Each structure stands twice: as structure tokens, then as C-alpha cells.
Amino acid sequence: MKNNHTLKTFMSYVILNMLGMLGISCYILADTYFIANGIGADALTALNLALPIFGLMNGMGLLLGIGSGTRYTILMARNKKEEANQVFSQTIMIGVGIGLVLSIIGLMGAKTICGWLGADAVTFNMMNSYLKTILSLAPFFILNHIIICFVRNDKGPKLVMMAMVVGSLINIILDYVFIYSLGMGMFGVAFATGIAPMISIGILSTHFFKEHNSLHFVKCKVQISTIKDSCSLGLSAFITELSTGIVLLVFNLVILKLAGNVAVAAYGIIANISLVCLALFTGIAQGIQPLMSRYYGDGDMKKVYQVLKYALCLAVGLGVILYIGIYIFASPLAAVFNKEQNLMLAELAIAGMHIYFIGIIFAGINIVGAAYLSAIEETKKGFSISILRGLVVIVPSVIGLAMLFGLNGVWVSFVFTEAITACFAIAIMYNGYKVKELTSF
Asked: Based on C-alpha coordinates, what's the Rg of the chain?
């Protein structure tokens, strides 16, 4: 009976968070579709070059939100409500501050950033317009991530899912209106994306008026020790998000040198489909985090391990299904983002999908493993998984394999990285599980 209850709770949290994260990932997927079909392949290249900054901004929100949300849940489980709400209040203040700094950077330095990320004469103006708009709205993106994490940890997964999905639907509708009806180009795409978190925040704010709400703003000063502690718990989530941006940046620069803008556009198609797949795994990770933190705070490690087993089985099964689906439907997926019917773009995208997405099967293990370790305060181990797949293995792999095998080497580097990291993650989780099982008797 206890196992059934744990499974039911697991499914309710995880499914709702997977749906919510699917909604958020549709921000960029919708942008990709409407840009490819409403503006053109060069604009798709500009978007892909700008995505690392979008990932960095979202990563900042997750660093604060996931970490502070984890600490909040552990404190609430130990009946330290005042301390828990101090963490909440301080995180909101820091989030606003970081968002404003990013806004200033976007308004004053977008052109410089475009140069750093590899924009050329064809893509520069479109990329500059997109980045300047996105970064100027950074406070809303960061606050949205923070509030999502706290509401989820305050037993509000249904409201979180609703906020994410509605925000995404609004984004898709506005993409169509701004691009096709109003002809606003890349500015319209970025503005539509920026309105979505505003809508989401509005929906999430209703949580504060509910009877079961435990979140309250309290008078307090920002304490570096509190923020440092919270950020350490969210570091794995930050690195996971940031690694997506690092991979995009490195891949873009390598592919640009190997085969030019058309190949970067092909990678743009692959990368955006990948973002949706990874969002599903992130949904699993974010769904298990409140449960694991709560059980860990209560000292119930058996339930923590049950949740971990469910999450790993779901991640691996989902990874296999996704790969089979993408392999079979690679051609129509490429066609969706190829209005101009560019044969070279289609061939590169299809060949890339067949190889690249093998890595998805292993990626779920890594994302779930890092989330599990962070949720039980094993921050260094969780960080090691994230940094391994996000920097240590992927960067030398893509450069080395590209030199040996060209574009195919670029696609294989993702598979190689995720597989190596998965072996490392499984070893850490297995050893930790055995040690704690032996010492629990």
C-alpha cells in the first residue's frame, strides 16, 4: 500500500511537471517553426546562435529556484517555517536584482554579444534584435522560474503545470500574430516569448491567496550565506541548463567552420527538437525534487530510493521511445522547419537526427541522477555529473571527433558524452545507494 501511494504521488508530480516543461520548451520550438516558415533559414541560424544566452538566463532562474526551493522544502519538513520563508523572500529579491543586471547588459551590450557568438553580416541584425529584446525582459524569465519552483515545492504542481502550458499557448498565438499578421520579424518573436512568463507569473500569483499556501514574504536582509547555500543545491540544475547553451555555442562554431550557415540551420532543427526531449527529462527531475527533498527532510530514505527507481525507469523508457519516433519521422520533422525545401538542409538534418538522438537514451539518466543527488544535499556529486556532460567531455569530444569525421563526428560527440556520463552517474548512484542501505540497519 505504501509503495502504491508513493507511485501515485510520483506520477502526479512527474506527469504534471513533464507537461509543464513541455509547455516551456514550446517557447523556442514555436519560435523555430514560425521563424523558419515566416522569416527564413538565415533567421533560423540567427536564433540558434542566440540560444546559448537564452539558456544562460533560464539557468540563472533555475539556479535560484531549484536550489532555494529544495532548501525551502527541507526546512518545511523539519517545521522551520520562518527560516523557509526567509529563503523564499531573499530569493525573490536576488532574482529581481540579477534580472535587472541582465536587462542592462542586453540594452547596452547585445551587439558585442552577437559578435562573440559568431554572427556574420547576414545574421547580425536579426540576432541583435532578438537578444536585446529577450535580455531586456530577463526579470520576468528569472522570476517565473523562481516562483514556479516555490509553488511546486509548496504542493502546487497542478497550478505550475497550468501556468507553464497557458504561457506557452499564448506565446505560440502571439508568434503567429507578430510574424505573419504584423510583420514584426525577430523582435516580434522575442517579444512574444517574453510575454509568456508574464502570463505565467500572473497565474502562479493566485497560489498566494489559497488556504493551503505556506509561502509568505517576510522582512529580512539578503544574507550571502543563505543564497550561497541555496545556489549550491541548484548548481546541478544550472549547469544542466547552461550546458545546453555551451553545447549550442561550441557546436555552432564548429559546424559554421565545417559547412557554413546551412549546416548551422540544420543543427538548429536538431537542437530545438533536442530541447523538447531534454525538457521532458527535466520535467521528471523537477517533479521528483520536491518529493525527494520532503522524504529526505523526514529521514525516509526508502521512499527516496523508490522515487529514484521510478524516475530512472521512466527516463530510460521515454528515451528509447523518443529515439525510435525521431528516427522514423526524421524526414517529416525536418520538412516542418524547411519551408524553402532546401535539399542540403533536409539531408543534413535527417542524417544528424539519426545519429545525434541516440544520446537521448542516456541523457535522461544523467539529468535524473543529478537532480536526485542535489535533492539529498549531495551537491558535489550532482555537480560532477552536470559539469561532466556540460563541459568536461562534450567540448573536447566535439572538437576532436569533428576533426576526424566531419559533421558525423559532431553528431557522435553528443552520444559519446551522454553515454560516458551515464556510466559515471550510475556508478555514483549505485555506490551511494549501497552505502546508505547498509548503514540504515
From this structure: 21
- Residue 223: all three cell numbers together: 544574507
The Cα angle at residue 27 between residues 288 and 367, in degrees rounded to 5: 30
Mean pLDDT of 214-219: 86
What is the mean predicted confidence (pLDDT) over 356-364? 95
Nearest partner of 304 among 363, 378, 240, judged by Cα: 378
Distance from first CA to last CA of the chain, Å, rounded? 22
CB 33 within 8 A of CB 336: yes
pLDDT at 331: 93
Q: What would the DSSP string read from start to end of 75-93?
A: HHHTT-HHHHHHHHHHHHH
Nearest-angstrom CA–CA distance, 158 and 12: 9
pTM score above 0.90: no
| CB half-sphere exposure, 345, CA atoms < 13 A | 24
- Please report where in the chains the cell 564548429 appears, as a residue: 254
- In the structure grid, which three cell numbers stand for residue 326, read together? 525521431
**236 vs 9, 134, 286, 385, CA distance in Å?**
24, 24, 12, 8
Mean pLDDT computed over 225-232: 78
* CA distances to 28, 102, 139, 166 from 170, in Å: 13, 24, 19, 6
Could you give the CA distance from residue 341 to residue 354 in angstroms, rounded to a whole number? 20
Spatial contact of 9 and 291, defined as CB atoms under 8 Å apart: yes
9 touches 155 (CB < 8 A): no
Question: 35-61: per-residue pLDDT in tens?
Answer: 877 887 788 778 878 878 887 888 888
Closest CA to 238 of 55, 25, 422: 55
